[in-house]
Design brief:
Elements lengths: L3 E5 L3 H15 L4 H24 L4 H39 L5 E5 L3 E5 L4 E5 L5 E4 L3 E5 L7 E4 L3 E3 L2 H12 L3 E3 L7
Helix pairs in contact: 1-3, 2-3
Length: 185
Amino acid sequence: MTPYGIVYKDTVASLNEGAEIWRKNLNKISKKYFILSYLLISASVVAVNFAILCFRTEKDIYIPTTVLITLMEIISLYFLLISVSKRNAKNIFLSTNSNKSFKQAVIRENDMEFSTPYSKSNYFYEEIDKVVEGIFSLNIYVEEGNLPVCISKNSVEKGDIDMFISLLREKIQDRYIYEKSRGVR
């Protein structure tokens, strides 16, 4: 096989989509840890509101209001924790992958090579866990838990992205996943 490569630059849309795909696939905060944290903070909110209610003289009047306020606080807390975890994952992804210079990806017979002006790395196809294709990006996961290599599909300067994708699909086979992103922000 003749090596085939592309030269590309990062774009905002592809990096945002890559960050969202990475966050979904990685589950940066495990569900068990998230639920435990949420329950502990919710218990604290309930305890504080109950303590405030104990200092009221006419408890019968304030109980419905206190329950309503407690429920609103717990629901708000849930959405706050979700948005903070999404933003943190996105910031980690963008700070690591964002680069204004050109990057190159080359598919060879037995391995892939990724290079930037400052680094070069080779990975055998057996080392690649999976490839997730989105609308704007191609995310190559080399090791579980690490950030993927994010290739911007719409900013390829040299080479044909469709040819690159078909060659990569042929090499990766069942580890190639197409994910249609819902709403990239």
